[in-house]
Amino acid sequence: METRSYRCLKGPTFHLGIYSLVPIRYEDRYSIMQWRNEQIYHLRQADPLTEDDQNDYFDQVISKLFDQVQPNQLLFSYLENDICIGYGGLVHINWIDRNAEISFIINTDLEREGFHRHWKVYLELIERVAFDELDFHKLFVYAFDLRPHLYEAIEAVGYWREAVLREHCLIQGKFKDVVIHSKIRNG
Fold first, then answer.
1. What is the CA radius of gyration of the chain?
2. In the sheet where 14-16 sits, what is the strand order?
3. Of 147, 51, 43, nearest to 104 (Cα)?
4. Among 168, 184, 185, which Cα is nearest to 176's?
5. Which of 65, 70, 59 is nearest to 100 (CA)?
6. Which residues of 113-125 are buried (b: 16+ CB within 10 A; e: fewer)?
7. What local confidence, expressed as pLDDT, does residue 172 receive?
8. What three-state secondary structure class fits 171?
9. pLDDT for 15-63, tens place per residue?
10. DSSP assignment, residue 28?
11. Count of CA atoms in the C-beta half-sphere (13 A) of 52
């Protein structure tokens, strides 16, 4: 299957050794659905996805992003040796203020052993997209306070804790904080 390109980017693929980001591939949709369902506890997703949900999302939402001059999100398949092991992108893009939220999940089986390594590689790649290609000023990570190891991974590569929204979300009957980490280009 051919790799699609986002109209707002010069090139479709970003590489770092054996890892790459490519515009989200239709063929990866069911793996992504599986990982999202397995990791629903830390995502802004109310219910498990079905194959019909996933097909509809790809057909109705994602397919339209490629041709937009300023889409509200840019999603990528994260590959290791051309095999999809995660996905993410820039979401809630603010083209006026040149900032975006970073989204990323990896294959659930890689969470234990490769979490920090994959976040480091992914952040380097997605920063190339945001800072080098799109000339964005700021990126941020919005996370429910459920995975402190996430903060270690992103702080290690220059993201700082910008804000804590106290008891902001109700998760499994308990109010949880939301922690926002940010990075400013060349900051």
1. 16
2. 14-16, 19-23, 74-80, 83-94, 99-106, 138-144, 174-184, 160-171
3. 43
4. 168
5. 70
6. ebbeebbebbbeb
7. 82
8. strand
9. 999 999 999 999 999 999 999 888 876 666 667 879 999 999 999 999 9
10. G
11. 0
Question: Is residue 187 pLDDT above 60, yes or no?
Answer: no
Read off the pLDDT of residues 112-164 as tens digits, 9 standing for 90 and up.
888 899 999 999 999 999 999 999 999 999 988 777 788 899 999 999 999 99
Query: 81 near 16, Cβ under 8 Å?
Result: no
Distance CA 3, CA 12 (A): 8
Residue 142 pairs with which residues in a beta bridge? 180
Which of 51, 75, 52 has its CA nearest to residue 62? 75
Q: Read off the pLDDT band of 12 (50, 70, 90).
A: confident
End-to-end CA distance of the chain: 39
Q: Is 152:119 a contact under the CB 8 Å cutoff?
A: no
Amino acid at 185: R
Residue 2 has what pLDDT? Answer: 62
Q: Is residue 75 packed enough to be buried (19+ CB in 10 Å), middle (13-18) or exposed (0-12)?
A: buried
- Report helix, strand or coil for 187: coil
Tokens standing for 32? 């992504």
Does pLDDT of 1 surpass 60?
A: no
Which residues, 6+ apart, have CB-to-CB distance to 12 below 8 Å?
A: 3, 4, 5, 6, 22, 23
Nearest to 134 by CA among 103, 104, 90: 90
